[in-house]
Request: fold
Amino acid sequence: MGRLDEVAAALAADAEAIGLYRTELLYLTAPDLPTEDEQFEVYRAMLERMGGKAATVRTFDDGGNRPVLPFKNKTEPNPVLGYRGIRMSLGRPSFFRTQLRALLRASAYGSLRVMFPMISHLDELEEVLSALKHIKKELRRERTPFDEKMPIGVNIEVPAAALMSAALAPKVDFLSIGINDLIQFTLAIDRSNPDLAHLYHQYHPAVLHLVRTTVQAAHQNGIPCTLCGEAPGQEAVLPLMLGLGVDGFSTSPNLVLSARRVLNNCSYRECQNLADEVLALNSSAEVEHRLSRAVHRPLQSI
Ligand code: PEP
Ligand code: MG
Reply:
């Protein structure tokens, strides 16, 4: 989600948490960049409305098919591969600092988790950690309250990050796979191009192997790995991802209850066997065929 008024829908659907709050939508309607106080008020209101349930907020990921910040070069030849996500935040330290301060201040009002988009280099994460350390020191000095243990995570959306997840995981509290972009960048297929939709496939074995690699890295480091994006809205994906070891799913509010019904009816052991079987397959079509057999049988016996 990306708007405060969507929180009610998540709660009405009995979501356990907000798995992804996209902050770039904050400036979709505003002509100017939101100030620290304006951002703080939104994050605080969201946490208060959640009443103690966790919310994972992602720092700005502007560009591609999203709003374009005033200071960005609007004529980038490949905006989806361009100056966006963490690259832009690190390239604009005062802009990033404003958002981090607002988030940390809001963390005193609920259960806030923060994740960073489009990380592809370990150095980027190191820079984020150092900015956070600096701002925490500043807030302590000002005696501004914040959650000292606010969990932070990496949004795994780029194959490089998935492949390097064993190096990223020890430095954070969680990993969250952004499957929309992970598919896009693994298969080199523009996710918004309708002419290529038939090739944009969550069941491509390369994508599934990257999910497995990421989950294993998280678990070896004792942290959870969740999955967000459009794919968890499709029922057949859930037993497979559960079997691959994914610890939590984020989907749009209207799909929460049906996703929970599917997951509640799964046997974890059977899902693990299904995942092992599927990882040995070589094409999306074979995977899809295997999964269709699984969902056409009673879910308890996939
Ligand atoms: C993703 O890439 O899967 C994701 C959840 O983020 P977005 O759709 O905002 O790119
Ligand atoms: Mg993404």
